[in-house]
Fold this sequence. Notes:
It is globular, with a radius of gyration of 18 Å. α1 (about 15-25) packs across α3 (about 75-90) and α12 crosses α13. The mean pLDDT is about 95. β4 (about 115-120), α5 and β5 form a beta-alpha-beta unit. The two termini are about 35 Å apart. The chain has helices at about 15-25, 50-55, 75-90, 100-110, 130-135, 160-165, 170, 185-195, 205-215, 240-245, 260, 275-290, 315-325, 330-345, and strands spanning about 5-10, 55-65, 95, 115-120, 140-145, 200, 220, 250-255, 295. It is about 40% helix and about 10% strand. By secondary structure, the protein is α/β, with parallel strands linked by helices.
Amino acid sequence: MYGKPDVVDMHCDTISRLWGCRNRRPPWRPEDGTEPQSLRVNNGHIDLLRLREQGYLLQNFALFVHLGEAEHPWERVLELCDLYQQELDANQDIIAPVFRYEDIEKNQRAGKLSALLTVEEGGVCEGKSGRLHTLYEKGVRMLTLTWNFPNELGYPNLNSRRAGPRRGAEEQNTPDTEHGLTPTGLAFVEEMETLGIIPDVSHLSDAGFYDVLKAAKKPFVASHSNARAVCPHARNLTDEMIRALADRGGVMGLNFCASFLTQKPSGTPNPGTIEDIVRHAKHITRVGGIEVLGLGSDFDGIPTHAELQGAQGMEKLYNGLLKGGFTSEQADKIFSKNVLRLYRDTLV
């Protein structure tokens, strides 16, 4: 049974949610209420008290910027970065930042959680490599090249400018195999690896995935993506992609979003189950091996999963993996050890 293994999660949108709650702007929703929200304790999917209680070792915190909503994306990402730093400063008794792999070990010895800063939307740089350096100096160590908008770096599989906020199954299941990285995007991947920022291909088009595969010299990630053979959503990876990512030493993170786990007919509730997640885990590890899989919850960026309502539900997931046939050693690799190995190889 569950013995509180280390938990490493490659993706959550908690900082952007906190920003929205404080400013009463998206991704804040009226049901979030008007009470003050903090990283230490809040009514979302993740807060520090729950992370500590559940045995987390490291949480990646994404600075998510919606290009269709933010008038000045660069200013917005800097605001989010300031909020992240304010919350870490206010909670130094619980959590400390990670700039290189050794910081994870140092924080663990001090009895603290680790926080790794990421950006979800390469378009905030507007193609200016100097901004990439600024993000690195502020602690960013992973960057999702696109969200759901084309930008100066490349193209996503889901194009919000074309399809609008509500998409049918045909749109959701149709990947972009023609439009990949731009010349600027290719140069960014090279510069990111030089700096020590891990390229993240979640949201990127199929063509873009293969462009990164050719351009990158080091392991890269799909921080919050599942298996397309199990659920045909274009946000998920094909078996060929999973094998290529594994061969490069990369890791993909299980996404808890129900619509990326299984598809239901339009109008049919899709609350999500632990069994759905385990089904993806079994397929991904069968295709790419146990070393390719980690966690990428997408907490605070997705609708609440019926059986995983936040960080407090990780006990259920770990036990679900064991029940599904994974050994405790394999489950520990998925929960933390695979991502830690990748960070050891890349965060220098």
